[in-house]
Amino acid sequence: MTKEKNQDKVIEKIVLERIRNMAPNVKIALGSKGGFLGKTDLIKEVTKNTPTGKKIIEIQLRYMRALKEGTI
Amino acid sequence: MKKTLFVRPCHDDVVSYLYYYSKELLVKSDNKGFKTINKEKDDANKAVVTSVIKKNNPNFIMFNGHGSPTIICGHKDEILIEQGKNHSLIKDRVIYSLSCSSALKLGNKVADSKTTFIGYVNEFALGMDTDSQAAVHKDKRAKLFLDPSNLLVKSLLKGNTAKDAVTKAKNLMKINISKLRTDPFPDAKDYLPYLYNNYLFLEVKGNESATLK
Hints:
A: mainly alpha
């Protein structure tokens, strides 16, 4: 596994852990789909590496970076 | 008399939230003296919206619905505006597209000194609290996502510039992010990445100094 792929896997693991720790009442709508996604749906999107799953990873990653850099 | 047009489909859970929240904007627009045109539910279709724009030439249009970098959709996700096909329909006005990503390409395409396009250059995210699903108006989490959007439109209706309206909306997003960060309930932290996403990607293209005065 290349260094880049290994890094992607680590990021995916972190994001999945964050989603698993979500409160059960939270749902998120994203993209052009008409429904809200709960914890199970979000996990499915990320693990199946769908376009929505990729967007979820990007969103979580950007937020974590902002926290780290103190821009939020 | 200046005219406003609100396009408000209501065919799925997500656009139903946008439909509900944009309702107060019709009253605000009317109270501010605009001729307010509302095309909602199955009237938010391409034939009706195209005809209304051509006939009434509204100064401001708010689209609520799904989208992508090149399109804005209406009732049952029918494409209302598409880059390269009928994008000229929204030129020479102030547009606010509450939809995913439509500012990225479509917004850039129409933006010029006479056209203002306000929208999201990436996904627009919406959070909701399932405990409130039966009553949209009681969903305090969705309110944190949609109040800034409504403030943007109210600010335009008051006569503020497009740039100022976007700044006000972003400031409210920042306030709502801070509220969530200090909220003691366990679900609060889960909405933060998504509201921060909206904060990052709301943009104004074209004439930033445009007003509805």
